[in-house]
Design a protein that fits this description.
- By secondary structure, the protein is mainly β.
- The protein is 10% helix and 46% strand.
- The protein contains 1 helix and 5 strands; from the N terminus they run ββαβββ.
- The protein has a 5-stranded antiparallel beta sheet with strand order 2-1-5-4-3, with no helix packed on it.
- The longest helix is centred in the middle third of the chain and has 8 residues.
- The chain is globular.
Length: 78
């Protein structure tokens, strides 16, 4: 299945309140490949990941790297 991926970094530093947002499209053979994909992108610097599955098929992964909250949102395409 193909997904639109939105990756957000929530920067709370004073003077830089804007989020960094990145977009990508990627195909996965199985939804089980998504979390390993995230961990590989961050070279296993992530501890716990909170996963939220919405009724419309969107899956959200929230986690922290170096005390900075981050989020991946996977939206099925098609």
């Amino acid at each position: 299945m193909e997904y639109e991926i939105i990756y957000e970094i929530f920067n709370s530093c004073s003077g830089n309140q804007m989020r960094d947002i990145f977009f990508e499209e990627r195909e996965f053979s199985s939804p089980d490949e998504i979390e390993p994909y995230i961990r590989e992108k961050h070279k296993n610097t992530i501890g716990d990941i909170d996963k939220t599955e919405l009724e419309d098929g969107v899956t959200i992964f929230d986690f922290t790297v170096g005390n900075v909250p981050q989020r991946y949102t996977f939206t099925p395409i098609g």
